[in-house]
Design goal:
Strand order of the largest sheet of chain A: 15-25-24-17-18-19-20-16
Distance between the termini of chain A: 40 Å
Strand content of chain A: 15-25%
Shape of chain A: elongated
Largest sheet of chain A: 8 strands, mixed
Oligomer: homodimer
Largest interface: A-B, 48 and 48 residues
Chain lengths: 890, 890
């Protein structure tokens, strides 16, 4: 064993330092750090992780000298605190906590009040004059000790407590009398003997060693082991033990306890923000039994009781100076806990303060301005995922409500509206001036008009990449998907959640950020892009290397995304376009056509619509590249589903309904995701892709003629075999040349493909010979690499995540080991065979920070994501660069 | 240019040799070879491929000296043949043919009769006394020359011919008179001038050079170019030109022409087998206008006219000795063409003779016995795919019939039976002693009893790996799948093909080897495993390194496969087992159960059945490994499909039908192939896998107790993430230990997984840590790697194959570039992390020779295929070794 096993801290100096996490654990290092900063921390000592390792390696025995080390540290603590451990008159109490390098569930948390015994209880009552508090502490110690040190069933003790409350006819622990508590402590001791055949140790030193041993033992519980296995934490790291003097904020009028933030965690404003309670314990502040008071005058509102600043001005100013000290030292907003014991201020904890998205942005930018941190650090301080919140309307943080159920938070924001169950109703009700929320089992492309009309969507099925979710994110609307408890009955126009029935027209509110569904109208607040936000985005752009594009199918989306900083369109899907008014009819007629000639007739009618689509998008994106994906979904998605609709269509087209039904049936597929779609359609019905190519180049030529810069990039979907691309590339080039010749204009354009089939990644070298660009379609690629249907996987994916089989939903965060290795392979093979190949990603992962980090390292040129994720992606892309630099990778 | 551009052959010696294919092309080398063997070949010369390359590189000009070379070669030919090119009295005629290193479609085939002109026509008539033949040759020369040399539209000449026939009121060319033909020749010449503005060259030398030039030009046609691109044939190989003297078998009574095989191509018997016609041209033998005569007495049947052996005994014996010479030289059965011109025998061609499967086996084995070839060569002489024919009943080769339609030849063999449209009818009719053929849109696992009863299956949808196809191959029954022209009307119990309506009870015959559907009962012949076959298989086993297992789900299949040489079961699917009588009810009840407890009750009832299954299979495979795949398909495949069935089940179980319907609906998936199946079920419902594991180990222990050697290998399907396997492996091990403790027996067993999800291949290293074996499930792996649904891809796969986008159906022959690269990656990563990993393949590809070759090279331990493919696999595995040795790879 190394010489030093026990590290004292207290009275302004510590044996350890903040960097010594390996030996002291996170908590111990932190306590040493604070002590060394001159912050008044209750004295204590840390037993090193190396002792834990020794203990494990030596049949759970302690190394020689540990006993002496601990005893001498206790003496130093006693001196520092002016109390004595086990002293009948002036007893010192200890808390004992575990503390590994990283915090770890499954390990022993805390045993408080170590040192209370039959004699010290009396001394403490004498000293504090608060017998209720002392007996409550005593019975808590016994229960906690029995549970975590002696391994007895906590439930047995709760039963005794419950019996007593029942007997007294009270509900809350706080309603029990001092006698009740003293009596309970005795009953607990009897129970300990009953259950274990051993007495609860009355000797403080015996209690302390029992607790220390329990901490070390807890390193090796099955739960802790399996956590380590899952998180690759080595067995031999071990845990440290922190033994610290307890202080009490409930020792009378000169005592108090409180929590505070060094800046406002809601707004980020640079004000000292906190609450306290005089003559109280820490848990009283949190428990809400007494109403906490504001910490300073600045925060006082009418009717508030005296602030700490008023009540104990000196202590407050000491606290305020500690606040500044901490911010300077940690260069970040701190969340602190303090206790004032008989007028003496003790800091119990400081940690990085959690904050809202708005606060995170403001704090980062202002701290940079203050010179506290540099620009890179400021960028790394904001969680990219968080800032999406800032772009959407959200529920008023001050509103209180209780949700009736929770689904997947599929698209952030808030929606308040009256329930409708069909897309048609959403359209009609909106035209009548109503606000609606569309509730469906799941949505389909046919619902697109209704989705445009509604405020938000709630679906009972489907996951984070279901149709509803994808469309919602594109539109920037709120969506809760896969709310499994929602049972919809279309016939009666109601849905049920448990016993609650919600009818058509009832108001509901959706919180797309949490997935909560709430009855009634909850107030919302609008988004606002603060100057700080824009500043931060500007900094991100200075650092990032990845381009950020957007997935946008309409001019509106394109404009919005451009406002958010999109540098082009990475994915413009053309299928939604065919569902619009006046189009779906032609589309269906085209699909139902008897032969190619008839198909061409109907395509002729669709051409002007499609040209208009592209005109709008090209204009909105003037000067920037626009990647247009040719028709992708299987044709049956456009086909009428019900007999009635088929008959309507038949009479419109003057065709035999039986013929149409037969055609519709022949388009049906067992596994449409693996079916006749994407470029497979382009091969079977080249006239469809010809029409689309013509529309693209007619629009491009028209704008080029009027001086607008257009940069079309034609993307062929679902390529798995190089010949598919070479054939369809030739088709696009032929049409492009034709149109440009007809119009007398020259437009530069690219032709490329999505890499979304595993085979495409495997033969990417050959595919790249025919491609100007690759765009990874990670939704489909994930689907096929895992063999998970996005439409169906919800059922077992949830289970897989719960059981820890998957750490993340691979449709949300790129699976780097599997899908990622295909991406790397495809990228490398592609670039090797075509060094000019431009490579991006346009799946949902293009907006996910971890996936963006991966894309940066993989060497991609750009990511493309839904408009509202563009700022997220800009920040994430910058962070990817900064993190790489920190790791010395760049 | 190299010195020699022209290679003469004739009179027993040639300038070239058989190995000079690169310079002489295949045909030229062959002619040189035959000449050098002392075989009487009409003299001629070959212009080398190097001249072609020069011609192409030099703006289609000929190198200096070519003219002289050709002229001197002509002189040698004239001398050899005793005739003169262009001579008015004794004219020599030439054929001109292309001949590259490999035969190549799109290139010029042949111009015959070069040298006929207005003067030589007269001389030839004089010489042969056969003016009709001469004029017919003349008009053919003009048409052929106009077409292939001058590039004129052949149709224009056919029109003239047709007009003449119409005018004369005759149907066949042969009915035209000499005058008609002479007149047509004149009209052709006028037409040539009309179409080209040029005269048909009357100068023989000009004709010859025109034809030579045309051969070279044909190297560069778009069709030839694209063929080369598709087959990776270099542009600079070029083609040779073969100019050869023509001989005529129609010069009178001492002339004749014929074709022969050195052994009987139908049976392989070592007899000289052939036909001839006196005073006839080669095409007369083939055209069937005159009935050919047997070549020798041995073949003469009652009523046959004199054989060649009788008519020209000396010539026959010369031919017979050439036959022996050729077999000795080529060490294989030859297919020869000969012409006797005025008593002189000329050999026109010899090539390897095509043969039936039975003949191939007999010839290979007998030639080895004769010492003509060694054992390795014998093994390489038989196409593995062919021998599958020998194992199945097949249509009597002597029967004649015309099919009404053709589908995919999904499982070989023949089936004759009365049409039924439901599995139930197949069962009932069979019980009444009838033979049935089951006709369905597609089959499903529910049809299993009916499939067992029927002789064969015809489906309108589905591909080579559809349910019907896979089950049929497993059962060794005949199946034609995806017969798209078959329109089934279940309601009226009829199907239609075009205008033909087939009713229930009508007899039809299926040829599973060709995919042909025939009306009525066609006679069939049984399979027989000849001694030669068994000898060949024994030789294969001497060489092969791959083990061959079988995919078998029943004891019957297992026994059959073992008879065919299977060395274990590589895939025993457990799902079919649940459809049996008395089981499906429990299975459904289990699926419909309200909770785990109820599920366990029903599983309890299934356990004895499942144990019986395994007892039977283990017994059949005593001493050999048996890989059992735990339940794989999505549960909804077992669920009743119609409302009526649901209600029946509900009343049986005493449950609310609405509840059952809701449960059935909740099991429905959009893309079941990517859904809740395989190990995902095992994770969600561990009790199901527990029951299966218990059944396996109870059966194994019972047999082990009675001295039967059992080697169970438990296979977890659809693993994509290592944790899935580690969890389920632990489950299997737990149950195994339990059962073995209960029974007091020890059974060695393995636990492994199928690699059938692309991700599994990508993270195979981690998966291998938990696996004793990998088995590549290439059906699913292909499905997901390509993103092709096996159930649906038929539609576009056919198109892809027709358009040459894919060369082979990847579900039939392993896609080596894509899927194969995943297999290699998985194999390498797997073995790296677990060097004892046993690796095989159990997809349909396990029975495909090319895929087996791949598996051998990839280093796999075994392939597993349906019972009837086991001999195919044994042979293919041996060939893989031999081919590798030949390439110096081993």
């Amino acid at each position: 064993m190394p010489h030093r096993m026990v590290y004292f801290f207290g009275e302004g100096s510590a044996d350890g330092r903040g960097e010594m996490k390996n030996i002291l654990g996170g908590k111990g290092a932190n306590l040493a750090e604070m002590t060394n900063l001159g912050i008044p921390v209750p004295a204590g000592f840390t037993i090193s992780t190396e002792v834990c390792t020794y203990y494990m390696d030596n049949d759970r025995t302690f190394p020689d000298g540990l006993k002496e080390g601990v005893e001498s540290a206790i003496a130093r603590v006693e001196e520092a605190m002016g109390m004595k451990f086990g002293d009948p008159e002036n007893p010192l109490l200890f808390s004992v906590r575990s503390g590994a390098r990283v915090s770890m569930p499954g390990m022993m948390d805390t045993v408080l009040n170590i040192g209370l015994s039959e004699t010290t209880v009396k001394g403490l009552i004498e000293k504090t004059g608060n017998d209720r508090f002392v007996y409550d502490s005593y019975r808590r110690l016994i229960q906690m000790y029995a549970d975590v040190v002696m391994g007895l069933d906590s439930e047995e003790f709760n039963k005794l407590l419950d019996a007593r409350k029942k007997n007294k006819g009270v509900w809350h622990d706080t309603e029990l009398s001092t006698e009740d508590l003293a009596d309970l402590a005795e009953k607990y001791k009897v129970k300990v003997y009953e259950l274990s055949g051993k007495d609860f140790p009355d000797n403080p030193m015996e209690q302390l060693w029992g607790a220390i041993r329990a901490v070390f033992d807890s390193w090796d519980t099955p739960r802790a082991q399996s956590y380590r296995k899952m998180n690759d934490i080595p067995e031999d790291w071990g845990t440290a033990v922190n033994v610290q003097a307890m202080v009490f904020g409930n020792m009378g009028e000169k005592s108090a306890t409180g929590v505070a933030f060094t800046r406002d965690p809601a707004t980020g404003e640079k004000v000292f923000y906190g609450e306290y309670l005089p003559n109280a314990q820490g848990e009283d502040v949190v428990a809400g039994v007494r109403t906490p008071r504001p910490i300073n005058i600045a925060q006082k509102k009418k009717g508030d009781e005296a602030s700490l600043e008023e009540l104990m001005p000196e202590t407050y100013h000491e606290l305020e100076s500690i606040r500044q000290n901490l911010e300077r030292h940690y260069t970040d907003t701190q969340d602190i806990e303090f206790t004032i014991q008989n007028g003496k201020l003790w800091m119990l904890q400081t940690r990085t303060g959690k904050r809202t998205a708005a606060a995170a942005v403001r704090i980062a930018v202002e701290m940079e301005m203050e010179g506290l941190i540099d620009r890179k650090t400021a960028l790394l301080r904001v969680e990219p995922d968080q800032i999406a919140q800032l772009l959407h309307k959200r529920l008023d943080p001050k509103a209180s409500y209780s949700p009736i159920t929770k689904g997947l938070p599929a698209s952030p924001g808030a929606a308040v509206g009256q329930v409708v169950f069909t897309a048609e109703d959403a359209v009609n009700w909106t035209e009548e001036g109503k606000q609606t929320v569309l509730v469906r089992e799941e949505t389909s492309p046919e619902d697109i008009d209704g989705m445009n009309a509604a405020e938000g969507f709630l679906t009972a099925r489907g996951g984070m990449t279901s149709h509803a979710a994808v469309v919602a994110r594109g539109m920037g609307k709120c969506c809760i998907a896969g709310a499994g408890n929602v049972e919809i009955d279309y016939a009666s126009r109601t849905f049920k959640v448990g016993n609650t029935t919600v009818e058509e027209g009832d108001w509901i509110t959706l919180d797309g950020t949490t997935g909560e569904v709430i009855l009634g109208q909850i107030p919302t607040v609008d988004s606002e892009l603060s100057d700080n936000f824009l500043t931060l985005m500007g900094w991100a752009d200075e650092f990032r290397q990845l381009s950020v594009r957007t997935n946008a199918d309409t001019p509106n989306d394109a404009v919005r995304a451009r406002d958010f900083g999109a540098e082009g369109i990475g994915l413009c899907r053309t299928e939604h376009m065919f569902f619009g008014d006046g189009r779906i009819k032609f589309m269906r007629a085209m699909i139902m056509a008897a032969d190619e000639d008839e198909r061409r007739e109907w395509l002729e009618k669709l051409l002007p619509f499609q040209r208009e689509d592209f005109l709008g998008i090209f204009k909105a994106m003037a000067g920037l590249p626009v990647t247009i994906r040719l028709l992708d979904p299987p044709l049956h998605e456009f086909v009428p589903q019900t007999h009635l609709e088929v008959e309507e269509l038949a009479s419109e087209l003057g065709k035999d309904p039986e013929l149409l039904k037969a055609r519709a049936a022949s388009l049906h597929e067992m596994n449409p995701m693996l079916g006749h779609r994407g470029c497979r359609l382009g091969i079977s019905y080249p006239e469809v892709y010809e029409m689309q190519a013509r529309a693209i180049f007619e629009a491009a030529c028209e704008l080029a003629g009027s001086g607008v810069e257009v940069k079309p990039e034609v993307m062929i979907p679902l390529v798995g075999e190089p010949k598919e691309l070479s054939i369809l590339r030739a088709l696009v080039e032929r049409v492009a040349t034709q149109v440009m010749t007809e119009k007398g204009e020259l437009v530069d354009y690219l032709v490329g493909t999505m890499i979304e089939i595993p085979r495409a990644a495997l033969v990417a070298g050959e595919i790249a010979e025919h491609a100007d660009f690759f765009s990874f379609g990670t939704n489909d690629l994930t689907q096929m690499t895992y063999g998970y249907s996005r439409d169906d996987a919800g059922v077992f994916l949830k289970e897989y995540l719960n059981k820890g089989i998957l750490r993340k939903d691979p449709f949300q965060s790129l699976d780097q080991r599997g899908v990622g290795s295909l991406i790397k392979e495809a990228f490398e093979k592609g670039r090797l065979s075509n060094e000019d190949l431009h490579v991006g990603i346009c799946g949902e992962h293009g907006g996910d920070p971890m996936s963006i980090d991966f894309c940066h390292h993989a060497g991609l040129d750009y990511v493309s994501c839904s408009p509202y994720r563009v700022p997220v992606a800009r920040l994430a892309a910058a962070q990817a660069v900064l993190r790489a630099r920190m790791r010395g990778l760049l």
